[in-house]
């Protein structure tokens, strides 16, 4: 009962952000406490990042809401997520794409990938596929994607991700090492359009087109 009360409080905060109603509804359906370590369950609905191991974090609820809102996710979309973490962000996007949509997540750490798989299975999400590898390379075998969600900061937009985004598609990605900015990237017929949406703080993207360890 206490977790339900905290969840409702979190949702009220999300509503005040002014994001699309579909995003609020999706976050209302996802039990965030199933996606955090057991010793952090009491903080699951607080609006701040939480450590999930291997130096990684689960993003603050407001950031998940804002990124999903910027992506303008539609039912049936095929989405690539770079940085799967505990699986929470993927679960919210799975709600937004519906049963006809697909989420492909790439995570650098095997332990976290397995943690996410267990969490998603426990929460009942079957349309999320998790892979382990270099997120900066994307997953070309399933491209093109309607949306790409990058949950770690890159030095610049990785060329493979642009290649794998379909024309008409959207990507959100944090750019910068220490002072980061969240970019909305749109791939249009006339080229790539970028727009800065605010200052953010994310863990670094490590890989060929990311930062070095």
Radius of gyration of CA atoms, rounded to a whole number: 16 Å
CATH architectural category? 3-Layer(aba) Sandwich
What oligomeric assembly is this protein in? single chain
* Alpha-beta content class: alpha/beta
Pfam family, one: PCMT
EC number: 2.1.1.77
Protein name: Protein-L-isoaspartate O-methyltransferase
GO biological process, one term: protein repair
Note down, in words, how this protein is organized.
This is Protein-L-isoaspartate O-methyltransferase. Pfam families: PCMT (PF01135). Its EC number is 2.1.1.77. Its main location: cytoplasm. One of its GO terms (molecular function) is protein-L-isoaspartate (D-aspartate) O-methyltransferase activity. The chain has about 210 residues and is an alpha/beta fold. It has a single domain, classed as 3-Layer(aba) Sandwich (Rossmann fold), CATH 3.40.50. It is about 30% helix and about 30% strand. It contains 6 helices and 9 strands. The strands form 2 sheets. A 7-stranded mixed sheet has the order 5-4-3-6-7-8-9. Strands 1-2 form a two-stranded antiparallel sheet. Strand 3, helix 4 and strand 4 form a beta-alpha-beta unit. Helix 1 (about 1-15) packs antiparallel against helix 2. The N and C termini lie far apart (about 45 Å).
